[in-house]
Amino acid sequence: MNPSRLLVIALMSVVTGLASQAQSERWTESKANDWYAKQPWLVGANFVPSNAINELVMFQAATFDPAINDHELGLAESIGMNTVRVFLQDQLWEQDSKGFQQRLDTFLSIAAKHHIRPLLVLFDSCWETDPHLGPQHPPIPGVHNSGWVQSPGKERLLSKADEPKLKAYVVGVVGAFANDNRILGWDVWNEPDNQGGDKSEDVTAKVKRVNELLPQAFAWARSAKPSQPLTSGVWVGNWSDPAKESETTKIQLAESDIISFHNYGWPEEFEARIKELQPLHRPIICTEYMARGAGSTFDGSLPIAKRYNVGAINWGLVAGKTQTYLPWDSWQRPYVTAQPTVWFHEVFRQDGTPYRQHEVDLVRELTGRGTMAGSAPSSQPGASQ
């Protein structure tokens, strides 16, 4: 072979190798900020269709409902939302990777129709520790989020023998959509050290194991070379001093391409949290906020988010089987004989009317998007479980 051609091939190999390595590493600050500069101001909701008690019902073949997703994402679009945060579940991939991929593709097409780009959550440490496929129990009367499930469940989380299955899920689902512009990004792990749903005697082992798996989960996702950024939202503790951060928080902040956080506090606290994260010099998105009874509202937090160019994704869109319009204290005192004074989460009633007209008007005003139309049809589409 011509020596010049050999040199060209060698140089191309080096360049290809460097590009591949760059894709498998954390984004630089410059790359992250360049990406964010190309995005509109990101405003949306954590989305579970009102007929679903959890992410399994949302995506299982027997209960996946394109019509209700279309209808409710239309409501989000009508008030100027352009993103939603959506939870996936590892058992869906193991059970039927092809079918799950097809249903997720359908969902992404519906979202794209409404000019909405989802942030997809891979793992979640909150609530039911023993998730199972198939029919889910009905909502517990009067209780906030009574059917939510972890991913992975406790048994699979603590079992090192199950690591290959978790890796296959992450690499498989991220790889399938790695270059899909309909996806905003990947939220690798929701509140990884959350103790909700766990027995107190299991917490230490759980957090230790999460801290082992979390960097691996980021590495698995990066090995699929996604064009979208990775993140994991910090949610508790002191973020202003690395010496005071938990091990989990350190990993989240060190691995995330873009920074995300949760805050359900008063506006002063919301703004303070943003300021704690600004020294990282990366884009910031609040991926959970808006709990009226706790002091977190659209009125208080959303104008602050806009002022700092921080993305804002509230919890809940349409009141339904998650029952997250009920307060957290319903875990101790179910609201079975009386309704709460104010809704905790959610934006719309099931008939498509806003819980508070002022809120949806404010979202439209601040985003400069949406329409005054978008109310639901009189009949609710789709089946429920």
From TrEMBL:
Instruction: Tell me the keywords, alphabetical order.
Output: Glycosidase, Hydrolase, Signal
Q: Report the leader peptide range.
A: 1-22
Q: What is this protein called?
A: Glycoside hydrolase family 5 domain-containing protein
Q: Write down the SUPFAM superfamilies for this protein, in alphabetical order.
A: (Trans)glycosidases
Work out whether the entry's keyword set contains Repressor. Answer: no
Q: What does the record give under GO molecular function?
A: hydrolase activity, hydrolyzing O-glycosyl compounds
What are the recorded Gene Ontology BP terms? polysaccharide catabolic process
Q: What is the lineage of its organism?
A: Bacteria, Pseudomonadati, Acidobacteriota, Terriglobia, Terriglobales
Q: Which residues form the Glycoside hydrolase family domain?
A: 80-292
Q: Which InterPro entries match?
A: GH, Glyco_hydro_5
Mention any Pfam family matching this sequence: Cellulase
Q: Per the similarity annotation, which family is this?
A: Belongs to the glycosyl hydrolase 5 (cellulase A) family.
